[in-house]
Amino acid sequence: MFRFLHAADVHLDSPLVGLDRYESAPVETVRGATRRAFENLVGLAIDEEVAFVLLAGDLYDGDWKDYRTGLFFVDQMARLREAQIPVFVVAGNHDAASNITKYLRPPDNVHLFSSKRPETRIVEALNVAVHGQGYANREITADLAAAYPAADGTLFHVGLLHTSLDGRPGHAPYAPTSSQVLAQKGYHYWALGHIHKREVVSQVPWIVFPGNLQGRHARETGPKGCTLVTVENGAVKQVEERPVDVLRWAVSRVDADGASSTDDVLDAVGRAITSEADRSDGRPLAVRVEVYGRAACHEEIASDPDRWMQEVRALAAGVGSGDVWIEKVRFATERPVDLPQLAARDDAIGSLIRDIESAAADPAEIEALRAALADVRGVLPRELLDGDDAVDPHAPETLARMVVDARELLLARIARQRSAS
Ligand SMILES: [Mn+2]
After folding, report:
1. 395 Cβ partners below 8 Å, 6+ apart?
2. Which end of the chain, N or C, is more open, meaning fewer C-beta atoms within 10 Å of its C-beta?
3. Residue 361: which of 394, 393, 404, 409 has the closest Cα?
């Protein structure tokens, strides 16, 4: 019997561009999170006395800013060397050979697979073969797995590969392949990387994405960590998810439908945050709150979103041990009245609503908005535009949402004016 650990997408020291723009952001905690999670991974490997550790690509987020990132990795590998644990590594799209200009030779327990051709390493004492190939450059569009050797039948075979497999929403299609191609190799376990959401793709053979090691923003939610695999009599006996993250991200959708007052809304938000905090296993929690639904207090919220965001922040301070940070609050409530009725009015308000409604559905208007926003791209934080699951500010759904947001803001202002006069 032996065990091994499979991790991927560590993205060590990945830059958190713009985080300090957010009010009261736990900048140091977030900045150090990928390192602390990696230390936990190494600690887990030592505690579980694993036979080896697999790192399936994107260990680094890109070229190191300085040598500290590389020195940190070497230090951690030295801990594993001390425990006589070998480590097998392939490069992914983020740390492809052509992306990395700095290099530090790791301790001799670490093997970095070639990026030119598939390579096989044998762990003699355990009759294990590990096959792998890294990325020579960022955009690998060929099926790397196709060239991996077939299993020979006498060893326990592991395939190490950074791949989008047959496509996953929000992830660039690198080294595409299919479960069928992987299964045909006759391996016992495919240790994949690239998809940041954990997924057991198949059990015969085992094909696993462990997900990334540590969530880095509100699009990487829930527990994050690695996969612990137990092998007995030459077969996989158990596959366990082991969280090693030090900070969690959550998106909390709060249904404010029918809420008659802002107190009702805040109560609902408070309950939602509390239940997220209960699920964070004692870890600090970063929450993005989205409030939606038709509520009588919509105008009050929509006319002063900043105030209500601060109210939500104040709420979070009182939840649990106080280790909850509200990253962002998005108010998407709507007024309980129906728009068609307003739009039918024979006055300035009716006319304004008809204009905005037609803009949202008019491709020419959306195109004009896209053109007007062409310069915005340049000033947006890089984290929004880059990466495997970036937000596109020019996407039709983003633009259509902006028009709806504008409509809501205008209507809320008009309603306030009218009730004040
Ligand atoms: Mn990747």
Report:
1. none
2. C
3. 404
pLDDT digits over 339-394, tens only? 677 788 888 778 877 887 787 778 887 788 777 777 666 666 666 666 555 667 67
Q: How far is the CA of 417 from the centre of ligand 1 (A)?
A: 51
pLDDT in tens, 155-203: 999 999 999 999 888 788 899 999 999 999 999 999 999 999 999 999 9
Q: How far is the CA of 94 from the centre of ligand 1 (A)?
A: 6
- Distance, CA of 198 to CA of 224 (rounded, Å): 8
Taking a C-beta distance cutoff of 8 angstroms, is the pair 121, 91 a contact?
no
- Supply 44's token pair: 């887990």
Distance 166 CA to ligand 1 centre (A): 14
- Residue 114 tokens read as 């070639």
On the CB side of 253, CA atoms within 13 Å amount to: 3
- Locate 92 and state its tokens: 């992914």
What's the CA-to-centroid distance between 228 and ligand 1, angstroms?
21
> For residue 373, what is the enclosing H or E element?
none
Distance of CA 357 from the midpoint of ligand 1 (Å): 40
Domains in the chain, CATH or no CATH each: 2-243 (3.60.21.10), 247-336 (no CATH), 337-421 (no CATH)
Beta-strand pair 206-209/199-203: antiparallel
Q: How many CB atoms lie within 10 A of CB 383?
A: 18
Q: From ligand 1's centre to the CA of 274, what distance in Å? A: 33
Ligand 1 centroid, distance to 205 Cα (angstroms):
22
Distance 325 CA to ligand 1 centre (A): 28
Q: Please give the model's pTM, rounded to 2 decimal places.
A: 0.81
Q: How far is the CA of 33 from the centre of ligand 1 (A)?
A: 19
In this prediction, the residues of the chain whose per-residue pLDDT falls under 70 are: 17-18, 20-21, 320-322, 337-339, 375-391, 393, 412-421
- State the Cα–Cα distance between residues 408 and 339, nearest whole angstrom: 11
The edge-to-edge listing of strands for the beta sheet with 324-334 is: 248-255, 285-294, 324-334
